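Box S1 | Example of a co-folding query
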Amino acid sequence: MKTLDVNLGARSYTILVGGRALTRAAAVVEPLGFETAPIIITNRTVFELHGGSLLDGLKRFGPSAIVEIGDGERFKSHQTLFKLYREMLRIRADRRSWILSLGGGVVGDIAGFAAATFMRGIRFVNAPTTLLAQVDSSVGGKVGINVPEGKNLVGAFHQPSAVLSDVSTLGTLPDRELGAGLFEVVKTAAIWSEPFVGYLERSLPRILERKANALEHVVVEACRVKAEVVSKDEREQSLRMILNFGHTVGHALEAATAYRRFKHGEAVGWGMLAALAFGRTLGRMDDRSVARLGRLISRVAPLPSLRGIGIEGVWTALCRDKKFRSGGIRMAMLSAIGRCEIVTDVDPDELRRFLVSFLASPGAYFAPGDLR
Ligand code: NAD
Ligand code: GLY
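Box S1 (continued) | Returned holo structure for nicotinamide-adenine-dinucleotide
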């Protein structure tokens, strides 16, 4: 069991990572001084699998309220949010109440947003149960919901009071979800730490076999990077934007396929490949590093094909995204493995030309065998 701290002054908190983080929840939660048992927000899939461990860990707080939401991205909606508010009012939650989210990024994002807004803000603890949520969404305080116009367009920064990342919960995760989370791990390593990239290259088979110590190492290292970045730039004024490496094209691919073809992490996998290939086209990165990361990304998991995705849909989505600025496109790009920069003046014409070619033939940008 390992602990890490996210240093944000009065909003600092601890991340507990390990195989029994849920059953040991009290050790981290008790010092927070809550006066009541939590309101657990979860979904049925996750609660049936892992709710028992959490309830064990929280026994000394007395009976918790359990509120289930639907399973899936479409439930990260204002309708679900209002159901949560009304349920919390029904059970007489007040400003001393606290929320504990048990689930993946969907549950964490909406439960965190409910916490940010209910009675002008109450405290919450994240217990993430997907790899993506353990390495990314549960840390850093971005919470929110989707609206029909786009994903994550309504939200807040509201830091959790603690994060309980129990890697044993990853044992029940479908393979595809594990792969999706691992693409975000590769992103974190690629932008920050060449040794972490080296570790992933060596240990990928053990990670894919879900060996507990390999998963624990991955979650700890990814959280260490995220904690450091968020501590320096909580509200994404500058440095935090590097966490969006692979997301400019990734988000556009998700939107262009109506969020049906790719898991978010898979779209980020493609987005990283595109950013790497584009970076080499611009002379920002050397062939060897591009090939090395391309190989690692392709070993993580198969990526759904880009077949049939036209430039128009991708371009419209990319231009609508938060990263588009008049005169130039903002994009996180690597200058070396472990070093990422925010380029604010990407020439739209150049990027568009590149994307036309990349969508038609991504394999052409990597040596035979580098991409599966
Ligand atoms: P998810 O929450 O939909 O979980 C994926 C699936 O796995 C769901 O069906 C869920 O019920 C199931 N599941 C969860 N834990 C399980 C377990 N241990 N065993 C078996 N099944 C389990 O998806 P996700 O990938 O965790 O999160 C995606 C969401 O995260 C998106 O809404 C995205 O916008 C958001 N996100 C937020 C941030 C942030 O900083 N806040 C960062 C990245 C992504
Ligand atoms: N997932 C990107 C961020 O938290 O900033």
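The radius of gyration is 20 Å. The CA atoms of residues 183 and 269 lie 6 Å apart.
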